[in-house]
Amino acid sequence: MWEPYKKGYKAWLQLERSLSDHSIEAYLRDVDKLTGYLQTTGTLKSPDAVDLKDLQLFLKWIGGLELNASSQARILSGIRSFFKYCFIEQIVRTDPTTLLESPKLKRALPDVLSFEEIEAILSCIDLSKPEGGRNKAILETMYSCGLRVSEATGLRISCLYLDDGFVRVIGKGDKERLVPIGDSATKYIRIYQDNIRVHVKPKPGNEDFVFLNRRGAKLSRVMIFLLLKDLVRQAGITKNISPHTFRHSFATHLVEGGADLRAVQEMLGHESITTTEIYTHLDREYLRETLHRYHPAFR
Length: 299
What we know:
Elements: H1 3-15, H2 21-40, H3 52-63, H4 69-88, H5 115-123, H6 130-145, H7 149-153, E1 160-161, E2 166-170, E3 176-180, H8 183-195, H9 221-235, H10 243-256, H11 261-268, H12 273-276, H13 284-294
Antiparallel strand pairs: 1-2, 2-3
């Protein structure tokens, strides 16, 4: 009964949302969970007959599967997306998820590095080795531009506009954005390109990637993770650090320096400003100063 709707939903995710195959599979699994529940309870109906009560009982059911709040919220996100599609395509007259409450989530904020800690990590790179110059360039670029690790490993030579101070980044869902790049990152990319990369023969299909391994292939995400883990250990930093920490630190340092949240959202490539807001874990004193400075009742 639901197969034609699922097929249409899959096409909508591909064409309208431009999601990756991995994300699409996850969304379809969420819908499968709902149809599986309706089937086992003998209440399988077409999407236009599903109401708020059905979905509340479904949430109660998945809550009994010993899934944590984050996993439950993830499934609910997929169900909301499916009914949004159904509403847009006029398969349903009203969206039954509108009044559906999400499980309460605790937002665990990742560790953030201070500028001094980032400098300490970068200073541990052995620049006497060819891979050292490459590693310096990639980590400088990740911090300078706030890149996801996949965006850094997938960065292309044809996307570098170093003379203009920008790089074109291909993010999630193949969405592109222009991000400013700092002088230090620009300097080390040029050193790497002119003195190290020229001696590496790229594998077919890898010619346009900026950062290559010794065999001429683009770097893997795991390689960046292991490289950073080793540098953090050498720097004597005990925080829980991953490549994403550089992106988180980039955004946090901007916001704490007074950057506009919308500008940070644009640079990070976030679709929603609410995603960017997790980077604003500012101390109470900073918030109090902001309130006193800008709120008319405190002037």
